[in-house]
Write a structure and sequence with these properties.
This protein is 15% helix and 40% strand. The chain has an eight-stranded mixed barrel with strand order 3-4-6-7-8-9-10-11, surrounded by four helices. Strands 14-13-17-16-15-12-18 form a seven-stranded antiparallel β-sheet, with no helix packed on it. Strands 28-27-31-30-29-26-32 form a seven-stranded antiparallel β-sheet, with no helix packed on it. The protein is elongated, with a radius of gyration of 29 Å. 39% of the residues are buried.
């Protein structure tokens, strides 16, 4: 998308040289100039435009529509300091011509913070231009400056921020060379939401490339009879811009239930709900009869069937969707506030821990056994519980990460603080104690700071808390909060 000026100069050079072949007028930097409507080339379903094309009239769009164009993706912004000055006219005239309109942003971010800032900038600009929340919003990831650091995390941060800003259909545009140079994992975004650019020497409708992705941009120098200038054109494999339903709302939830297919034959879809661009059929639900699901999102679409789609993340990182009508006993996950420590060593059990969902749920990701992960005798702060099939599952925070595990893998720490009242002096000679907010270190509290920065200061101790592992913690007030530190880190009690 970012090479128009160079292509224009090369086109002039090519025309001077006079290289002409049927339907392929010239080649600049190996990219042929195509004529829309010519036989044997891929469909020109979608074109993308920027300030390079300047104002495009309604009549011009209608001419291109007659040559098969169904959708237009307009460059809206770049970085955090540029908005396409022609975007408003380009968008409004495309709508007036009866074309589906999407938007794209030329990215320059180098870290997740910059990615989120650019996504916000893009979202605000798109909203101001009247781009709907259900429109395709593309992250144009090709600039050399973006090829540093965690490219995968950066692109995902941009995508997630767009969703948080209310846009339900983010897609990723990039080149095959960018992928090979950076190791970008396209499948993590969902193949149907990938817009891939790669320009064959002679594009052919009988030799289509990258059909696994949502769209393929196969040429950047296509002309339309009766229209001046050249355009990027793409074939839309998955209906990204050419039809289907669109997402109207997505809400965060935490619900669980059981797949129940009595008299039903539901499909499970990845990437998006059924009939929404970007969806891929995954499996039929009857083969998972009786298995459990844990939804963290509920989605509604523009379809008149009124279906609410529950979704979860697969272990592949791709989101899966199923009609909630296919789920029985759908309940909210219960919240909890318990402290526990793993005791497989004393009970002889061999439990495992799972991310995302309990072990007998679709999408559960087994991380290993408590023994192999070195978790025995370590603490977890339990924040959620689920009871299914006679088993109670806990979701707890362990060393900063959340995992699910069988409640029988732990023993609850029922200790509690007791009130005291004395003065003590913080003494960190030879020590490096931490200070923690609201509860002792074992229970995954927020870290306040190192005690040695307060060395020699007196504190008014108002509580003591001896945990199951035998450590006694003292509590005192700091900045309006009760904080705890190891009693061995103070002296001169009085």
């Amino acid at each position: 998308m970012g090479k128009k000026r160079l292509q224009g100069l090369l086109l002039i050079l090519t025309l001077i040289i006079g290289l002409v072949v049927p339907n392929i007028i010239g080649r600049a930097d190996g990219v042929p100039q195509l004529v829309a409507g010519s036989g044997g080339i891929p469909r020109t379903d979608v074109l993308d435009v920027s300030s390079w094309q300047q104002n495009i009239s309604v009549d011009t769009y209608r001419i291109m529509k007659n040559y098969g164009v169904k959708g237009v993706i307009v460059k809206v912004s770049e970085g955090t300091g540029y908005i396409n000055p022609y975007a408003s006219a380009q968008i409004n005239n495309a709508k007036a011509a009866g074309l589906t309109v999407g938007a794209y942003h030329y990215s320059t971010y180098t870290n997740t913070s910059e990615a989120r800032a650019e996504a916000n900038y893009f979202a605000n600009a798109a909203k101001s231009l009247g781009v709907s929340s259900g429109a395709v919003m593309a992250d144009d990831l090709e600039d050399a400056t973006t090829k540093v650091g965690g490219v995968q995390d950066n692109a995902m941060a941009f995508r997630n921020q767009l969703k948080a800003d209310g846009f339900s259909r983010p897609i990723l545009y990039t080149y095959t060379s960018y992928v090979s140079q950076t190791g970008l994992n396209l499948s993590a975004f969902g193949d149907a939401t990938i817009w891939i650019a790669s320009y064959p020497y002679e594009p052919s409708s009988s030799n289509l490339w990258y059909t696994q992705y949502g769209m393929w941009q196969f040429n950047s120098r296509t002309t339309f009879p009766g229209v001046s200038g050249e355009f990027d054109v793409s074939i839309d494999y998955k209906g990204v811009m050419t039809g289907g339903d669109y997402v109207t709302s997505t809400n965060s939830v935490y619900k669980y239930g059981t797949v129940s297919q009595s008299g039903r034959n539901d499909g499970i879809y990845e990437g998006a709900p059924w009939n929404v661009s970007g969806n891929n059929f995954w499996q039929y639900a009857p083969q998972f009869e009786g298995q459990h699901v844990l939804f963290d999102e509920e989605t509604k679409t523009s379809n008149s069937n009124g279906v609410t789609w529950g979704s979860w993340l697969q272990t592949s990182g791709i989101r899966a969707y199923i009609d909630e009508g296919a789920i029985s006993n759908l309940n909210d996950v219960e919240t909890a506030d318990k402290n526990a420590y793993f005791n497989n060593g004393s009970t002889g059990r061999s439990d495992g821990v799972y991310s995302y969902a309990p072990g007998n749920f679709l999408g559960a990701d087994y991380k290993g056994s408590i023994k192999d992960l070195g978790l025995d005798s370590k603490y977890a702060h339990v924040v959620n519980t689920i009871e299914v099939d006679g088993v109670t599952w806990y979701r707890g925070k362990i060393s900063g990460q959340y995992y699910w595990f069988d409640s029988r893998a732990v023993r609850l720490d029922t200790t509690a603080p007791k009130s005291v009242d004395y003065i003590a002096t913080i003494n960190q000679q030879g020590r490096g104690d931490g200070i923690y907010q609201d509860r002792p270190w074992e229970f995954e509290p927020d870290f306040v700071g190192q005690a040695n920065q307060f060395n020699g200061q007196d504190v008014n101790v108002t509580s003591e808390w001896t945990t199951e592992d035998g450590v006694t913690w003292i509590g005192f007030v700091m900045n309006g909060h009760t904080v705890y530190m190891d009693k061995n880190g103070v002296s001169n009690l009085r």
